[in-house]
Structure formats: C-alpha cells, structure tokens
Amino acid sequence: MHIPDGFVDLKTAVATGVLSAGGLAGAIYGVKKYFKARVIALMGVMSALIFALQMINFTIPGGTSGHLLGGALAAIILGPHAGAIVISVVLIVQALVFMDGGIAALGSNIFNMAIIGVYGSFLIYWLLCKISRSRWMFLFAVG
Questions:
Q1: How far apart are the C-alpha atoms of 43 and 101, rounded to whole Å?
Q2: Rounded to whole angstroms, how far apart are CA atoms 115 and 136?
Q3: Rounded distance, CA 1 to CA 5, Å?
Q4: Of 4, 43, 107, 139, whose CB is crowded by the most CB atoms within 10 A?
Q5: Does 3 map to a domain?
Q6: Is 1 domain-assigned?
Q7: Is the backbone of residue 125 left (phi > 0), alpha (psi -120 to 50) or beta?
C-alpha cells in the first residue's frame, strides 16, 4: 500500500525522506562492491517484474488499497542493497508516472517498502538460512 499525500505530516515526510536518502546512499555504496553488467541486467528485469506485480491491487477498508510488494523477492535474488534500489526505482516511477502514492510521501513509501521491507525480509531470510543449511530450511526461508 502506498502512502498518499496528506496521510503523514510534514515532519514525518521530511524525516523519512532523509532516512530514505541515507538508506539509498548506503545501498548504492553496497552495490558498488559487486557491480557488474549482469547485476544491472537482473536489476532491470526484477524492476519490470515487481512493477507488473504491484499493479495487482486489492481493496483495504479505509479508502485505500494494497498490493504485492516484491521486496523480499528482490532481496533474496539480488541481495539487499540491489533490492532496495530496485524497489525505490519502482516506487519513484509509480509516484511520478502513475500517481500511485504521493510525491510528498515518497520518502515514507521508500522507507517503508524499500528500506524496512527489503532489509527486514532479507534479515529474516538470512537468519533462517543460518539456522540450518538444509534444502527444506532454504525453501522455508524463501517462503
């Protein structure tokens, strides 16, 4: 669910915008460590896939809608840094082109979905995979 303009006050929008900018700067720095042409191609394909998956909306009471996120998918396949960049790019395109979420709330949306969503889901995946190296635990962690 994207946060539309007007749902968060100015202080929250500015604070989450600063946190999102810092998180994205860290993600870009992290991706530079394993930056290759193959990673760029995978990031582009993953962006298109997640963008298409996020077009599937379902209604939520309260006048808004929810959709599939894709942050965990991007984090597991590409790594958390590239996953955060992919989700951020998708959110920026959706806000600017499709008016899905607000421009003022873009920092909040990036913080919720690209920073917390991607890194949080990758942390859960990583911890579950560290518990056991079995194929069953890997499939459970991915799920």
A1: 22
A2: 28
A3: 13
A4: 107
A5: no
A6: no
A7: alpha
Pinpoint the alpha helices (H) of 1-143.
10-31, 37-53, 71-78, 80-97, 106-109, 117-131, 135-142
Contacts of residue 84, defined as CB under 8 A and 6 or more positions apart, other chains included, come to: 23, 24, 27, 75, 114, 115, 118, 119
Give the torsion sign (CA, 7, 94, 27, 132): positive
For residue 5, being part of any structural domain is answered with no
What's the predicted TM-score (pTM) here? 0.86
Task: Name the token pair of 39.
Answer: 């990673």
How confident is the model over 54-105, as pLDDT tens digits?
A: 888 778 887 766 777 888 889 988 899 999 999 999 989 888 887 777 788 8
> Is residue 4 in a domain?
no
Domain count, the chain: 1
CATH, residue 71: 1.10.1760.20
